[in-house]
Each structure stands twice: as structure tokens, then as C-alpha cells.
Amino acid sequence: MTLFRAAILNPIDIKSWQFLLDGGLLIEDGRVRAMGHFNDLVKHYPWEPVTLDGVILPGFADIHIHWVQHAVRGRYAQALLPWLATHIWPEEARYVDAALARDRAETFYADCLTAGTVMGMSYSSPHPEAAHIAHAARRGDWITGNVVMTANAPADLVAASVKPPADLASLSETIGRAHYAVTPRFAINCTVDDLAHLGAFACQEGLAVQTHLAESAAEVQEVKRLFPQALDYTDVYDAAGLLGPRTVLGHCLHLSPREWSCLKGRGCWIAHCPSSNEALDSGRFDLDCARLHGIPFALASDVGAGPSHSMLHVMQRFRHQHRAVGVRVDPEEILFRATIAGARAMGRGAVAGNLGPGKRGDFVLMPRSARLQSPQSWFEDLLDGSPAELEQRPLGTWIAGHPVFGGARPALAEPLAPC
Ligand code: GUN
Ligand code: ZN
Q1: Strands (E), 89-246
Q2: What is the mean pLDDT of the chain?
Q3: How far is CA 285 from CA 228, 301, 371, 415, in A?
Q4: C-beta of 360 in contact with ligand 1 (< 6 A)
Q5: Which pLDDT value is given to residue 146?
Q6: Ligand 1 pocket, residue 83 CB under 6 Å
Q7: Whose CA is nearest to atom 8 of ligand 1?
Q8: Which band of pLDDT confidence, cut at 50, 70 and 90, is reported for residue 419?
Q9: Is any ligand 1 atom within 6 A of the Cβ of residue 249?
Q10: Could you tell me if the CB of 185 is within 6 A of ligand 1?
Q11: Residues sharing a CB contact under 8 Å with residue 11, sequence separation 6 or more, in sequence order
């Protein structure tokens, strides 16, 4: 058992969090045994504490990130479709090389831990081997899937891609159902038959599904042209049986009222990717509409369209984009969307997402600021800075109570710049 002593900010729901200026967190066998005011906790558990100079938050969840784009993140300047063809597909083709994939996977997970991300859902390249490599190298709790691309893509990627239904069973078996997501890249890269095979397989095996939906206006037009029989873009996936409560749809920026209702009816999750939407100038997520329909969503970086894997940066862009047009976004909701909501989207709500009793001891230590007496003010300060600064802001990260970055010894706090 380890008893940590620090300030603690623990998200509860979109409206509330628990803040303890002098908190205690007791971890036993990798899970939270108890959390509360240090002086109360130590009466029941009279252990010598590990005192940390900073603020403990639960580790972050990033539910939509392309780990194979990490090395080229932030190279945009074009809209989605030309950006994919110019910058992304040539890069992903390189993951045919297992040595390169191994090397890149190590960097990716190390960077995620440094930034405080302990879990997420990732897109791999089409190559099955690269997905195996990502799974074997993972640090934290990850669900991954090799993108299926059987149409309208460069020949080398189509050749590398799994052709449904072949090979899907062996991939999900070796990677494991809890860690494998059926991943049609997007409708443009799949045929009607392939989508139907993927939907049937996901349903039969109870697997998570991840894909992109209505990210750009040009993409929506292209889907209309390629799938003339469908009611709309959402219907392409729905007709294939791909939509359900285990489905996580990236973006969802250009949806009709019918499509919003369909997503609600199917219980789908949305991965809201504000930094990516801004970078590719894809549009703004209709937060009011998502709230009105009660559609569950969590935040995601969508690296490499998103310029940074830092969830602090994603939270910053979430706050900025919606507040800029007068839509209210409270700090409590921002933290919730990067932690509890992400864990729930992954099907891990019972075991991760905050520091409640019985959950995994996954947490990140953040620096104090002069405004710590008010957790709202401190949290607003925490999100200020450039992507590079935010990627390095955590002082340490722990998984199941063990330090995985920094923090092996009590860390020194660096004050945040006042905003
Ligand atoms: N749509 C299809 N593939 C991709 C991708 O790799 N990134 C983003 N942002 N959108 C996509
Ligand atoms: Zn994406």
C-alpha cells in the first residue's frame, strides 16, 4: 500500500469535482483504496506518506489518436482530403517496416505518459503487423485498430489492408477483444460490402468500433457521390450495422437533424477533436446540439491533424472554440470530458476515469499555481501555454500507483505563469 499526500482534484460529473488542498490517496494492489483529506485518512491508515508537491488529477484518456501520425503531427495547411493524400498516406505506408513501427511506438507511448495520457483509442496504419506492435509496446490502457482501407486509396495501403472478413478474427483474438477496435478508416475508403462485413463482425464479437464521420464538407459530398443509395453519411454506417453504444465516431461536424437523432437512437459516442478541427479548418462541433440530444462525447487529440498529443492542449482548444462563440464551457466539464467521459467511451467507466474507490491508481501530478486556493482559477491557469509547454507540463505520471514518468521521487513544483 502507498499513501500519497498532495493537493487532489477529482472530477465527478460535468458540473462538479472534488478538491482537496491537503489530500491523501491510498493505493492498494494498483487500485484506489481510499481518497480524502489527508488528516482524516491518516487516522485510519497510519502510513508514512509519499508527499508530492503539486496537484493530483486522474490520468487523461484520448479516445481518438492516430499513433502512426505522431511523427508528422501538425503538418497541415490543407483541407482534410488533400492533407491525407499529401502528408498522411505516404507516412502511414512507412509502417510496413516493423523496425520503424517498433521505434515509433516506443516514442509515442513515452510521449503520452509525459503528457499525462494513460489510456485511449488509437488508429494504426492498415498493416496488421503494426497494430500488433502497437499493442505489444503499449504503456497504459489502449484500444487499437488497424485502419481498413480497401478503396480510393494508394495501392500499397490497399494491398496492406485487411480485406474483411478475412484475418479480422485472428487480429482481434491475438490483440484481445478488450483492446481491439474494428476500424474502417472512413466511408470513402471502404466498399458497401466491406462495411457490412465489419459491422457484422463487430456485432458478433462485441467489439468496439471507431471511425470518422462528417469531418469536412468536401468529405460529406464525396460520400454522397460514392453511396447514392444512402440517406446520408450516417446512414452509410448505420446500414452496415456499425452504429451502437460501443461505437466512437470522430468529429461529427456536418450532420443533419436526422443524423443527430440517429446517433442518439443508436447510443453512439462522439470523439470531439477541437484542436484537429481548428487545424484543418474543418468546422466547429455543434456543442449545443450534442447537449440538446444528450449525446455522450469525450475529448480527443486526433494527432496528427491535431498538432499535439497533449490533452491539456485539447482542453484549451475546447474551452477557447466554444467560449469564443458564446457557448458556456465550465472547467468542471472540461476536466470531465478528458477523463471520466473518455474512460466511459472506452467501456472502462467502472475501472478508470477518476480516483474513486476501486478504480485504477492512474494519476498525473500537475504544478501548483499562485491561484490554487480556487481550483477553478488554478485549472484555467493549467490550460494556458503553447502545445510544447503543455506537453511537458506534468511533473509525473503514475499507472496503477507506480511512477511511469518523473515523480519517482517527490517532484519539484514549477509555478505556472499567471494568466
Ligand atoms: N479521415 C480519414 N482518415 C483520417 C485521418 O487520418 N485523420 C483525420 N483527421 N481524418 C481522417
Ligand atoms: Zn482521426
Answers
A1: 117-124, 141-146, 181-182, 208-213
A2: 95
A3: 26, 14, 31, 33
A4: no
A5: 98
A6: no
A7: 305
A8: very low
A9: no
A10: yes
A11: 17, 58, 332, 335, 336, 339, 340, 353, 354
**pTM assigned to the model:** 0.96
Closest ligand by atom to 282 CA: 1
User: Class for domain 2-58+354-406, per CATH?
Assistant: mainly beta
Q: How confident is the model at residue 407 (pLDDT cuts 50, 70, 90)?
A: low
Nearest to 126 by CA among 163, 75, 73, 86: 163
CATH superfamily of 60-345: Metal-dependent hydrolases (3.20.20.140)
Give pLDDT tens digits for 223-269. 999 999 999 999 999 999 999 999 999 999 999 999 999 999 999 99
Q: Which long-range contacts (CB under 8 A, 24 or more apart) does 35-38 make?
A: 35/8, 35/10, 35/355, 35/356, 35/357, 38/5
pLDDT tops 60 at residue 318: yes
Q: How far is the CA of 66 from the centre of ligand 2 (A)?
A: 6
Place of cell 506534468: 394
Give residue 163's Cα distance to chain centre.
26
Q: Is the pLDDT of residue 96 over 70?
A: yes
- Shared fold status for 2-58+354-406 and 60-345: no
- Could you tell me the residue ranges of all domains in the chain? 2-58+354-406, 60-345
Ligand 1 contact, 147 CB (< 6 A)? no
User: Whose C-alpha lies nearest to ligand 1, atom 7?
Assistant: 305
